[in-house]
DNA sequence: CGAGTATTTGAGCAGCATCAATAAGAGTGG
DNA sequence: CCACTCTTATTGATGCTGCTCAAATACTCG
């Protein structure tokens, strides 16, 4: 797969840059494009009629997104930081996939990644306490390159307390309180609101 | 797609029947087979090291499952009732997919279905109260043919209180208490532990 | 019918949501 | 660069929700 598949796809892609906190597409919009993240990060969020706002996933470089069902995006995509994307017209991708079946394999692989992310998400949400949810979240987040500095053990959170809360199924006040609790008990040290130093010795025991 | 793809797949499938409460595969086992549900129902569950047992999804007829990552099943599959399956050797499917690209499209479609189910699941888990979780669950479950009788409005639950609890992220005692609450307040009527008559007028208001 | 399993019910406590107010940080324009 | 505004984050007080542990009841299956 790999190289050849990508070079074929590259013939129909458009480069795209978006600033932080901009919307790439909204849930319900007609799905015309498939996207690929070259750099940056974004969240997939979903608004419910009752006013709740869920964060379904956070996406990092090398991920495709926007593969829709029913011709319509089922959720919105919002950038967290400045991003650099590739954009593909979905109809062109479908045509191209006829001749290059590996494109479908690539999309299948990406769906697989989404599904494993969903499993992790569900696992975190099922944690019995807010503390274990948040610790689980930090340990997952630590795996993301660029936002964790292994030598200083500092995590750079690029999402708000509310985003984390909407991802874990709790209120942002609770998120804030648990951060406080973790700091008080030596699990983390807050350098500022978005920079958190981890004490892995304590965190791993949980 | 459809007919041709299925008839090609049928050349390599084995028929398989399993009684209720039997394990089709376990998480961690080497993934040799892909399955298709002809009739019956099952759950996908996942054991955590800390003793928690998650139910990731309930599966109904016409669904493929067992598409693995890393050569290994990431969760277990357990039947809820007697099931009738088709089984495909994964290696054979891969070979066949080379000549019949629509097989990959079919698998992609199935992954899409899994992902939408995960979205529904996450949405339910994010409900602020156990009552809204359970009502949401009942309204989703109602959509499954065979287990809801529209003329009598009776749901037949084929899973235990614990399965529901493990799916929604709560304890089975709470599940039981909420059923009681729903009955007391006229949302449902329990004919017995597994047969529940819905009062849609009241349920839909939530 | 009897043993094992599933479900219900109870009492008490811990944890989280809610509402509310304050503090910190980010962004803007003079 | 500072003052002002707006957003994001923290902190407090209170009550309800759901978990825990425990016991009783209902159901299933051989």
TrEMBL record, chains A, B:
Recorded superkingdom: Bacteria
Molecular function via GO: DNA binding; DNA-binding transcription factor activity
Domain Cyclic nucleotide-binding: 1-66
Domain HTH crp-type: 128-201
Keywords of the record: DNA-binding, Transcription, Transcription regulation
SUPFAM superfamilies: cAMP-binding domain-like (SSF51206), Winged helix' DNA-binding domain (SSF46785)
One GO term describing the cellular component: cytosol
Transcription regulation among keywords: yes
Pfam families in UniProt: cNMP_binding (PF00027), HTH_Crp_2 (PF13545)
Protein name listed in UniProt: Crp/Fnr family transcriptional regulator
Organism expressing this protein natively: Acetobacter syzygii
């Amino acid at each position: 797969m790999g190289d050849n598949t990508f070079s074929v796809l590259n013939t129909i892609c458009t480069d795209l840059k978006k600033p932080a906190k901009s919307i790439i597409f909204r849930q319900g919009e007609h799905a015309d494009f498939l996207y690929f993240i070259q750099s940056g990060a974004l969240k997939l969020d979903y608004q419910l009629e009752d006013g709740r706002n869920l964060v379904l996933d956070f996406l990092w470089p090398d991920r495709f997104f926007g593969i829709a069902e029913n011709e319509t995006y089922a959720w919105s995509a919002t950038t967290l930081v400045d991003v650099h994307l590739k954009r593909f017209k979905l109809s062109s991708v479908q045509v191209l996939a006829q001749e290059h079946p590996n494109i479908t394999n690539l999309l299948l692989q990406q769906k697989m990644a989404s599904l494993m992310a969903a499993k992790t998400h569900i696992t975190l949400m099922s944690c019995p306490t807010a503390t274990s949810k948040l610790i689980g979240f930090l340990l997952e987040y630590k795996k993301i390159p660029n936002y964790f500095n292994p030598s200083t053990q500092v995590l750079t959170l690029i999402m708000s307390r509310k985003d984390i809360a909407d991802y874990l199924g709790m209120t942002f006040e609770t998120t804030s309180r648990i951060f406080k609790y973790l700091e008080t008990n030596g699990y983390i040290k807050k350098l500022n609101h978005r920079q958190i130093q981890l004490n892995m010795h304590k965190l791993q025991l949980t």
